[in-house]
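Reviewer 2 asked us to include a model.

Predict the structure of this chain.
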Amino acid sequence: MIACTENCIYAEDGLCNLNEVTKPSSTPIKDCPYFKERKNKND
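Predicted model (structure tokens):
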């Protein structure tokens, strides 16, 4: 389990729900190379 407090499409209930390693995003943050910003609540 990986804690996640960012506004990311993979964040759910304070945890990262990314199931498999993918190509790093073009907008990584310091602690997460897979960060993808959540644009709205339905993402």
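The mean pLDDT is 85. Residues 1-43 form one domain. We have added this to the supplementary material.
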